[in-house]
Amino acid sequence: MLKLLLGVVIELLVSTMVAGLILAVAIPLLNRSNLADASDRTSQIIITGVLIGAVVIALLRPGSAIHRYIKR
Q1: Domain that residue 20 falls in
Q2: Which of the 8 DSSP states describes residue 35?
Q3: Contact 36, 27 (CB under 8 A)
Q4: CA-to-CA distance for 54 and 60, rounded, in angstroms?
Q5: How many domains does the chain have?
Q6: CB 36 within 8 A of CB 43
Q7: 52 vs 31: CA distance, rounded Å
Q8: Do the Cβ atoms of 42 and 62 come closer than 8 Å?
């Protein structure tokens, strides 16, 4: 069980870092094109969507720690 927890935590950290990299590119591009400002609702939705999407993809992908644990 500890191995599963460690695997899930590592996957969450990696997915959060990937989401951060995506946002590091996307947010300046949106600000430059005036599609989203710092306190705009659109930017909040984009940031939340990217973070949630990255976590969901990391946890539910076919080779994730949860799927390996279930297949045992």
Answers
A1: 2-71
A2: S
A3: yes
A4: 10
A5: 1
A6: yes
A7: 21
A8: no
First to last CA, the chain: 12
pTM check: above 0.85: no
> CA-CA distance, 37 to 12, in Å (whole number)?
28
The alpha carbon of 7 is separated from its chain's Cα centroid by a whole number of angstroms, namely 16
pLDDT tens by residue, 5-62: 898 899 889 999 999 999 899 888 888 887 777 677 888 888 889 999 998 888 888 8
Distance, in Å, from the CA atom of 16 to the CA atom of 13, rounded to the nearest integer, reads: 5
Residue 36: how many CB atoms within 10 A of its CB? 19
11 neighbors 58 (Cβ within 8 angstroms): yes
The torsion angles phi and psi of 47, rounded to 5 degrees, stand at -65, -45
Phi, psi at 54, each rounded to 5°: -65, -40
